[in-house]
Design goal:
- Chains A, B, C, D: This is Argininosuccinate synthase.
- The structure is a homotetramer of 441-residue chains.
- Chain A is α/β, with parallel strands linked by helices.
- In chain A, 41% of the residues lie in helices and 19% in strands.
- In chain A, helix 4 packs across helix 5 (150-161).
């Protein structure tokens, strides 16, 4: 059994997998590869192709909340010649160790993207590395393309956790991608090697789904002017046909993460991380919450267009923002906001397991110590409306702010405050006038 | 006539009003005050009170898009003893010189507030100063409270534009606020001095409206847990009863500001800044777009709760974000995002006329040179959905990003890119393993 | 005895002094004031003046490393009518709890000032508050001027630690400063009230000294063009006449703070914080290290000119910078650098005891966990030269960087790295060319 | 003749070289390469090796201020078979277009490195590209190693200026570096191909020199503990033996760049950019100013140790910092400081010709509009001491800051200023006390 040092939680300590240093000699068998297997056409072909290249292939499939027939996938992988198949449910750790830190950070890439795919990759990669270590495999393979972010996220995660691992990325290897320049060649290869070919025609775009979100890109979506087809969406209802009555939720936070969700319409309550997150997915999905259509900047330097659905994440983004503003000091918030911007960029770029991301996660978690309380939200027709909030730790002081009560506040102090703040502006005006006068002469 | 040096537009040059240096000797009459008059009970009482104190009062009322009977206000001010009344329509300059820079910046205070009130204050203050200069008045008075942001915004603007001006803020003067501890005393004073008293009962909250937004705060809203009453909103329809059919708009940008709006459902088109902004207000208002309920941090150091409606501003925020992401280089965007955060804070705090805000406005405008193109949005049930975008200046390269075309892109390069990025992470792992191993011994 | 909750050290927890909430009822005697007494003319006059106003005065004098006849000061205060005199040696806590966090941060205000005075103020203020609490005093008084930073630093510290304290700042009270418009009036007052008047003529500038530094400002230094007189300096020798032979030191760090200093020329070694800091002061002073002449921006909005000597602090700044660069990951360092900039500004402005400064101190301390090792420096003729460094935790990898060894490094990877980084630049060129071509047409 | 669009100066417009788009068809001859030739052993061997590979080689050597026998280098290149040799003096443009923007920015990488090499690379690369375009060459080759920063700086510059250029980097090509694993093999190859071999033994470190600085690294310096030999330095005297009398200089700035230098000891004055820079090099070199020994983080992710001499740059860094602080508003300075940090990082990493660097250069230049005046410095024994400064645009107000004059300043305002700033801290204390009290129960 593999020893994992350090805790996974809240960035206190980075995962250190022993015996992974670059120079370490590793155990046989030396030609085993753990393949991040999805059950789809691409990774099925890769599985067979890797065997052709002489590798022993162990298929690994994470259940991270995607819709998938895991049993069928297991059978398929074995049928294609996988030595072993590992299917592991990582949903709980995905929520607790990856989504929660993102909620604490209000993580948002380029002002819009809630990082659904980016958060899933390091969660999967960690498991890939653990399986590789257990099995003494020196190689990890994945089916991510050569132009995207996911290749980076997978590989940086693997290398950071275990520098001696070698990653095989067939879509970047000429011997692979020249052999399979298009989908037709893949299909032919599949038919030739007994790989089951999907019976339904492929959607004219690609998708990637997990518990937090689903992304749609490529194909007809590559033209950024093209409107997404109405039937594209799978995780949220069309707001045009969503219920005409809102759901109202009370979301309770402790240390910046949700610990309880109650639907005030029917009293339904959830407390565990995974359950409450899934429940929020249900409610948000039902009301069409969490759709965006954006152009974003990939780490490799190109702009791409993506359409995303992030139902629960969208509710939590709004609710956390609110409870944080309510309980956190203004200046701490400003500093934390800067850290979160950086954190979001790092997560997007695949640096989850980096010293800087670990550092940021620690600092952000620190900022959340008193982020506690309850936010009431209404979920309706694609929107999340904050209705009110309360907290035992709030820095909001109703008496102080009241227009009807003077309280300890001395209005005359504001005069001095303004005058001193004006000092610098007056000096600047003085100088500008001088310059301006001179120019007029 | 007053000479105003420098252009107002796009931050190229700050407004310099000559003859305003602190030490300058000013013309008589020395006891004239220009009052920022709203027509309401408070500033009416202040008008009379200022006269009681021996000042000659000139009432100034900006038409900045609020619903108001300006003619009645004029008559009222004159009846109360104002020497003169100036009512000036500043709507166009508000849009072009204040809202547009905020659109360019994607200005957002504390991740949520679009700065509707904060942007209006320097627009009004500039006019106040110009009137004071024209009239040879040494004083400016306003009715803002002593706990709020608006006093700061008004006064910093006035002092920055004309350091020799003296501001009278009655709500911070003990002789005033001790005389009028509550609304009852104001009413009594009004009745005694023939000041018309509103016949309708005052709403249990306070409001401030302009072309861009309306704010609701104080009163029953001071308890942050209390839900806003459904009948509070005045600028947007309730999404529950808003139309069941979306409007779709094409918004064209040049240099980061909208230059044309077309409703694709009916072909209605607007091109001038003011008209297109008002049209967006109509459309957004009709569909319930732009409501928020937040707790924010005031510059004076307290948290307050505010409810805002910003219809057109919300559409433009989303549309500009999209066209900017489409046309701006990733790294420029990141730098500009940091500048915008600072810009938003400065605007909120009242530093519109400051060297730093002028500097930021210039830099942000520079970043917008190629932010041009058209965004198509759907406005529906409280939401703005981006549907697509196109631009002659886009950095989006459909061929480069395509999954089906290799283009100039060499997938093998990504391997090197990842490996070099992994170098630092591997080194860190090496060190951590060493430390960890040592600790195990 | 006063209960102090929380540790002082390393920002882990902010000092909370119980029973200080604004609304708390406090014990009699209600008219006792604790005066931050310096023994000089100003605070002696203030002492007598406060008694005139009816206060019971307790004099507090911190020994924070300044040159002072503390015994004489005690006698003087008692002779002038102080009820009690407290003289407390705070040198050790000044080094360990205030200077050390600044060393960890490489704290530097406006790229040059090592914050010597700014760090001392919260150290003194904390003691003032503790004495006030012990003595049941409701007031604290100080002799800082109304234009400077120190008034802000003292008072924000006092209010943050004990909101119910009232601060008396005579130099901001018209009844005081109008009575004493100049030094002559102070002298007259002194003579009248038996306050000993300094026999030596006052230097034509003011000074403030502590263990870390001495500042010179005002008087003839107010003209920023005037060169500082050669005989002004008191903590460092003139580099023109300093020894012609350098001293070489080995400075060992743990967690970002120095834990051992060895003079390799003579083997002298110091390990305790206070002793090693004082020794560094000796060595740096002997070699003329640590003089600067700057114009800085005060928090109240004006520029001022100051001349500072910070001998030990200057050595530690250079040494810490070096060991940090040697042991800290590049990206962590960049984030930490931003935090330190903010930290320095906060310390300068007097916000030591603020939620944001506490947060930053925590984050910065976290970044220092592996900042350990030894730096060798030469101290000579006003300069500190880093000669070399070593560390058990270094991220420096001699084999990796070597030009003579390839190691694990694959040069071809750099090609991919460069090409991918170039992608964005090429896209930008493509667009610029298009625009440029169009403009030519 | 090649048309170059846009100005080179002050970042107003990026250099656009037409006809360089990636997809453009280029003129024959297709196998010509422009080699960045240094005259040394490495690039001489590369020249011959490129010819072996079938390329027509044009040698390009920039005179960027290094000590070099350019005539001998020309002859040598021709003798080795170069088709043509271009030797171009770029000193003036190096100072005006690359060093000056760095002076404006106070550019400093990782708090210490003045970027001497990093600034030279884009200056040279631009010329390389221009020659390649003129000559119709499709290739550029350089002799930079595969582990360093210079390869990145050269190539990103080339690709940004002319995307269709192909770069040949022999030290990253296995067929080259495996053939020449060490210096011995290079020597053998040289002897075999009639390449003149240096008669003096190579220094046990590598050097790179230009007008701004010289760097020493590798060889015996790779051990970061090793002290640099005393005889290593070539651009500055040993402070131990430098003159015992300082030089005093008056440096006049306009728009943030030096426009005049006067030695007040002898009246020597220089006004042109190049001449005054060279004169500052002389003076600084004579007094041993500008030596540093650092460990830095390379862009490729490894730490390296470098020793640098930057004589004139060090004087200008201190002088510019001073005049900037004197003339620039505090808050503008803070924003500009953040931009400069980013600028320095970009320059170090090789992104001179990037949209973000162009943007930053523009913003920084904008901040320098009023950075004008004269700084007096003393240069002595390795140190630069600022003695005083004056400026027609200073925001320093001697009357305002004076301790002896109250001026327009109202001390009572500071009370309000402090109290309002304390508000937030008191609120925080209130909450902490509550929490703390609870925990005690």
């Amino acid at each position: 059994m593999l020893a994992v040092h350090g805790s996974y939680c809240h960035g206190e300590d980075q995962l250190i997998i022993q015996g992974c240093s670059g120079s370490a000699q590793m155990a046989e068998p030396r030609d085993t590869v753990v393949l991040a297997y999805s059950g789809g056409l691409d990774t099925s072909c890769i599985l067979v192709w890797l065997k052709e290249q002489g590798y022993t292939v162990i298929a690994f499939l994470a259940n991270i909340g995607q819709k998938e027939d895991f049993d069928a996938a297991r059978k398929k992988a074995l049928a294609l010649g996988a030595e072993k198949v590992y299917i592991q449910d990582v949903c709980r750790e995905f929520v607790e160790e990856f989504i929660w830190p993102a909620v604490q950070a209000n993580a948002l890439y380029e002002d819009r993207y809630l990082l659904g795919t980016a958060l899933a990759r390091p969660c999967i990669a960690r498991r890939l590395v653990l399986v590789a270590k257990e099995q003494g495999a020196r190689y990890i393979a994945h089916g991510a393309t050569g132009k995207g972010n996911d290749q980076v996220r997978f590989e940086l995660s693997c290398y950071a956790l275990c520098p001696s691992i070698k990653v095989i990325a067939p879509w970047r290897m000429p011997e692979f991608y020249q052999r399979f320049p298009g989908r037709r060649e893949l299909m032919e290869y599949a038919q030739k090697h007994g790989i089951p070919v999907p019976v339904t025609p492929k959607a004219p775009w690609s998708m990637d789904e997990n518990l937090m979100h689903i992304s749609y890109e490529a194909g007809i979506l590559e033209n950024p002017k093209n409107r997404a087809p109405l039937d594209l969406y799978t995780k949220t209802c069309d707001p045009a046909t969503s219920p005409d009555v809102p759901d109202e939720l009370e979301i309770e936070f402790e240390k910046g993460v949700p610990v309880k969700v109650t639907n005030t319409r029917n009293g339904v309550t959830h407390r565990s991380a995974l359950e409450l997150f899934m429940y929020l997915n249900d409610i948000a999905g039902k009301h069409g919450v969490g759709r965006i259509d954006i152009v974003e900047n990939r780490f490799v330097g190109m702009k791409s267009r993506g359409i995303y659905e992030t139902p629960a994440g969208t509710i939590l983004y709004h609710a956390h923002l609110d409870i944080e503003a309510f309980t956190m000091d203004r200046e701490v918030r400003k500093i934390k906001q800067g850290l979160s911007l950086k954190f979001s960029e790092l997560v997007y770029n695949g640096f989850w397991y980096s010293p800087e991301c670990e550092f940021l996660q620690h600092c952000i978690a620190r900022s959340q110590q008193a982020v506690a309380g309850t936010v009431r939200v209404s979920v309706f027709k694609g929107q999340v409306y904050v209705l009110g909030r309360e907290s035992p730790h709030s820095l909001y002081n109703e008496e102080l702010v009241s227009m009807d009560v003077q309280g300890d506040y001395e209005p005359a102090d504001a005069t001095g405050f303004i005058n001193i703040n004006a000092l610098r502006l007056k000096e600047y005006h003085r100088l500008q006038s001088k310059v301006s006068t001179k120019q007029d002469e």
